[in-house]
Design goal:
260 residues, 72% helix, mainly alpha, 13 helices
Length: 260
């Protein structure tokens, strides 16, 4: 989808940058502020001590710049939880931004040479190194697999059935994950009619990703998970869905429409 966002606008770098920024950063910043609000609610420190703490400042600075690992916690917050991090999901955001940056550089090179097949050696390299790299690097190999599909999307659609069957077999056999997984995922998204109705609804998935972790942490903190895991799950789904919906309608969608 990142690749599609770039190529559908005729490789307009300025438009691409504005739309990508509007898509992720405002909602992301709102999540950081939400986490600080939760931290203030549950911390054992006084309000003055909490907001004047160097750790609070470091948390905001590290997370707003997506250097989350530098300070994932707030002072005296969730210390009795298994993991005291405020939002353990945010580590993936730096990966997302790196993908955003990679796309225009890659397509500039493709346009300069006029040879889109250049992605194929890169794909082969990703397939080769996949068994030997860590999980974070593997996410990049999946991204290259998906980007390659977008470059050859017409061929993908033409031979979808055969590619899908082969990909399922490959994934079951634990081979060619870099290409097989994107083929299955994109194939279901574009060719599985029973799932087409999902496109009619507003896209709150980003909000679900951003808010689920701090909500779970809050429920664990108040003992809901220990009391009843099913209740904890239900409350997590409800609360996260509400926050994600509010984020979509009041932050994400309005700003994306301005950049459309």
């Amino acid at each position: 989808m990142v690749t599609y966002s770039f190529i559908r606008r005729d490789y307009d770098l300025v438009s691409y940058a504005k739309r990508r920024f509007a898509r992720i950063m405002p909602a992301y910043a709102a999540t950081i502020l939400f986490c600080i609000l939760i931290g203030w609610m549950v911390t054992s420190l006084s309000t003055i001590d909490f907001f004047s703490s160097k750790q609070t400042f470091n948390y905001f600075l590290a997370n707003i710049t997506m250097l989350n690992w530098l300070e994932p916690e707030l002072p005296n917050t969730f210390q009795n939880n298994l993991w005291p991090q405020m939002d353990g999901s945010l580590w993936a955001m730096k990966q997302e931004v790196l993908f955003y940056i990679f796309v225009p550089f890659f397509f500039y090179f493709v346009n300069k040479t006029g040879k889109k097949w250049i992605c194929l050696p890169l794909l082969i390299l990703c397939i080769t190194i996949y068994p030997f790299v860590n999980d974070q690097t593997r996410y990049f190999t999946y991204f290259i697999g998906g980007m390659s599909l977008m470059l050859y999307f017409d061929l993908f659609n033409q031979y979808f059935i055969y590619l899908f069957i082969l990909s399922v077999i490959a994934l079951i056999g634990g081979i060619l994950d870099t290409l097989a997984f994107p083929i299955i995922l994109v194939g279901i998204a574009y060719h599985c009619k029973p799932f087409n109705f999902i496109r009619k609804f507003d896209n709150i998935t980003y909000g679900l990703f951003l808010y689920h972790f701090p909500i779970i942490q809050l429920l664990i903190h108040y003992g809901v998970a220990e009391y009843n895991l099913i209740l904890c799950f239900i409350l997590t789904v409800i609360a996260t869905s509400i926050l994600a919906t509010l984020s979509w309608f009041y932050i994400e969608k309005p700003l994306m429409n301005k950049c459309a």
